[in-house]
Design brief:
Length: 71
């Protein structure tokens, strides 16, 4: 059986893969950070708004996308 590279997947599958990683972070932030009050320990974290942690995650996912697409 041959493995399929990320670059050879259809565009919608690649978008869904990166979107699932982003949604995993959003769910982690909602269910763990917000509900347990851990946002007091995270500087610049904003409940319900875009924060630097989400922007950093988006940058990492875009970097990862290009890295996997070039293989």
């Amino acid at each position: 059986m041959e493995t399929i590279g990320f670059a050879s997947l259809p565009l919608t599958v690649r978008i869904a893969a990166m979107g699932s990683y982003f949604m995993a972070w959003v769910m982690f932030a909602e269910f763990v950070i917000d509900r347990h009050g851990l946002d007091a320990w995270l500087p610049f974290y904003r409940v319900g708004n875009v924060c630097p942690y989400e922007l950093a995650l988006i940058v990492i996912l875009v970097w990862w996308w290009f890295r996997l697409s070039r293989r």
